Amino acid sequence: MKARGAWFRRIVLGVALVYFLVPLASLADFSVRFPLTGKVDLVAWQALFGGGESDKLSLLREGLTNSLIMAVMAIVISLGLLLPTMVLVRLRLPRMSKVVEFVCLLPLTIPAVVLVVGLAPVYLVISTKILDSNTIWLAFAYVILCLPYVYRALDSGLRAIDLKTLSETARSFGASWPTVLLRVLVPNLRSALVSSVFVTLAVVLGEFTFARMLARTNLQTALFEINLSDGQIAAAVSLLVLGGTVLLMVALDLLVALQERRIRPSTRSDVS
Amino acid sequence: MTATTTAGRDAVSASRPVPPGMVNALGTVPFFAYTAVFLVLPTILVVVGAFTARNGGFTLNGFTQVLSPRTVTIFGTSLWISLLTALVGAIAGGVIAYALSLSPAGSLGRRVFTALMSVTAQFGGVMLAFAFIATIGINGLVTRMLSAFPSLTPDPGFLSSLGGVAVVYCYFQIPLMVIVFLPAVEGLRPQWREATENLGGTTWTYWTRVAGPILLPSLLGSFLLLFANAFSAFATAAALISQQSVIVPLEIESALRNENDLGMDAYAQALAFGMIVVVALVMGAYAALMKRAARWAP
Asked: Which residues of B touch A30 (CB under 8 A)?
């Protein structure tokens, strides 16, 4: 009985692992194989890292730069907006917590393709009247896409600490609210903040719908364009981004696991 | 520093004409203002826009077009492909989640596998399409490996067909199922199985009379979540299918692009409105099922 269960488990997980890793392996293979002859060549990788210059590469660089800037903006805005609000709501306005939760989880139920139809007129105003048509302002909308994930990460982080005691103690020692936030709460929420940062990074680097429909250039739309003329470079860059994300997430998971192990036996107390 | 902040606080508490509740509520203004502009306003614009003609008047033109045979077919295809990939994802993902729940809790292998699932569940996008082109496309790895067996070789045009899109969707549907269904199978207690056996029940009895009914609400709920996920997906299909709009998100893209054409008033918004209705129904049912599933949570 037990042995049969073990075999079932190994076979299922083994097959699943192969299924999930084969496309990644294929991507690697595709990036080093010249499509017509099937010979191995490193042209795509040399083009990427050889320091050469071409239209394709400058498009890619523009997309990547935009995506990275937007990732930083989205991280700063989403944490700057959510962390103080969630702390305030927990300490002073518990009745609002359901509303905040509802708003934060709302983007999960509104498809991005739907949201972008409504964002088009908003961005028309932003690009003509308030700011300009620079791609990076899309970061404002990306904050919305990341909201559910950042909310969940911060929510579980805040659940695990004794927020009331920490903030009241700091306040009675004369700390201002910014000090409480930055020097008392932030260090205690480290793993929640790290996971929000990683998730936001992954979402922004992978975003395609908004950029495509609003005709802006980010990493994904640049890849989309490049793939039409040079599949090898597109495959190489995709592999780097996907592989990087997998490593980032696995590392994050292990980090959180280690931290939990360190905290659990000693200081963690139940907060009611 | 301490002195200044204390002084600042005293100044605030000394001059407090408004009740503290108001001051606290003011602190949430940035959050609500931001989400109002970038989340609530766009949603309202979609709903209102679905009934607004270019000259600002009321119109049902968008909905008339949505109900045209062509668009109804597109909606049908979208529903059908979401249903199919949600079904495949729910079955395969359910089995994987169960297998995963049998492995030792907290082990490194289980952690890495779960992390891999949570990443691949988010893969849906342009890069995923490239990965499948590299796998079963014309020059794909698997295509070349199978070239010795002509009957097994995938058709080069397969990936840009609906079936191809469905296969690629499964790549992010299955891991999503694993993630959302894992807590439910983890909640199955070994004692229940032992109790079944002690009472003379077989494995079949256990699955059909004990575990099955307990898991059913979460299974259906996860299925609905997968359905909504596939229904909303855009990037993968956009990268695979370039010729025509076969599913709703692609049709929205072309409608948005042709918005200024004559007779296209409110069409994109009406399509988006249709998607909202479908997703809202599905998510409503999901919430109801999850409430029921919570009864068995440990």
From this structure: 130, 133-134, 139-141
pLDDT tens column, B268-279? 999 999 999 999
Nearest to A13 among B100, B130, B272 (CB): B100
Give the pLDDT score at B17: 59
DSSP A96: G
Give the ipTM: 0.85
**A253 lies in some domain:** yes
State percent of chain A over pLDDT 70.
91
A98 in any annotated domain: yes
Banded pLDDT at A4 (limits 50, 70, 90): low
Residue A34 lies in a domain: no
CA–CA min distance B59, chain A (Å) = 18
Number of domains in chain A: 1
Structural domain for A148, as ranges: 52-263
Domain of residue A84, CATH code: 1.10.3720.10
CATH code of the domain made up of B32-296: 1.10.3720.10
The reply to whether A7 falls in a domain is no
**Minimum CA–CA partner of A33 in chain B:** B139
- Residues listed for chain A: 272
A171: CB partners within 8 A, 6+ apart: A180
Query: Which residue in B113, B144, B283 is closest to A13 by CB distance?
Result: B113
Among B45, B75, B127, most A C-beta atoms within 10 A, so best to mutate, is B127
B145 touches chain A (CB under 8 A): no
Name the pLDDT band for A62 (thresholds 50, 70, 90): very high
Contact A142, A204 (CB under 8 A): yes
Question: φ and ψ at B220, to 5 degrees?
Answer: -65, -40
Q: What residues in chain B have per-residue pLDDT under 70?
A: 1-20, 123-124, 152-154, 262-263, 296-298
Q: For the whole model, what pTM was predicted?
A: 0.84
What Cα–Cα distance (Å) separates residue B85 from each residue in A21, B131, B167, B226, B230?
A: 20, 18, 8, 8, 7
Q: Return the residue in A113, A151, A245, A261 with the most chain B beta carbons within 10 A, the one to mutate for interface testing.
A: A113
